[in-house]
Design brief:
This protein is mainly β. The protein contains no helices and ten strands. The chain has a six-stranded mixed β-sheet with strand order 2-10-9-4-5-6, with no helix packed on it. A four-stranded antiparallel β-sheet has the order 1-3-8-7, with no helix packed on it. A hairpin with a 4-residue loop joins strand 7 and strand 8. The N and C termini lie far apart (40 Å).
């Protein structure tokens, strides 16, 4: 079964850190470019980072550069998102998915940041 399962979310104080994980089953991540996305209440889902399947290059929006880091462990078929210096506006449900093709969205993992 093709599946994505995110984990690692939780409640953290502003300025704190979390590391999110996204485990894939039924396919291998190294065949795809992978992205992390988030959706806050009342807002549309937005991309927060991605990593290339060809050269491992990464991308972040300017607002997240220096605070978020995406990485991949192909042996574990798992993608990570290290989030540092968290702000209340980072609170959202976080998801991972491939950037091309179709993989069903996972349940996401909720990040709550207290001020």
């Amino acid at each position: 079964e093709v599946q994505l399962v995110e984990s690692g979310g939780g409640l953290v104080q502003a300025g704190g850190s979390l590391r999110l994980s996204c485990a894939a089953s039924g396919f291998t991540f190294d065949d795809y470019a992978i992205g992390w996305f988030r959706q806050a209440p009342g807002k549309e889902r937005e991309g927060v980072s991605c990593i290339s399947d060809t050269d491992g290059s990464t991308y972040y929006p300017d607002s997240l550069k220096g605070r978020f880091t995406i990485s991949i462990d192909n042996a574990k078929n798992t993608v990570y998102l290290q989030m540092n210096s968290l702000k209340p506006e980072d609170a959202a449900v976080y998801y991972c998915n491939v950037l091309t093709g179709y993989i069903p969205w996972g349940p996401g993992t909720r990040v709550t940041v207290s001020s």
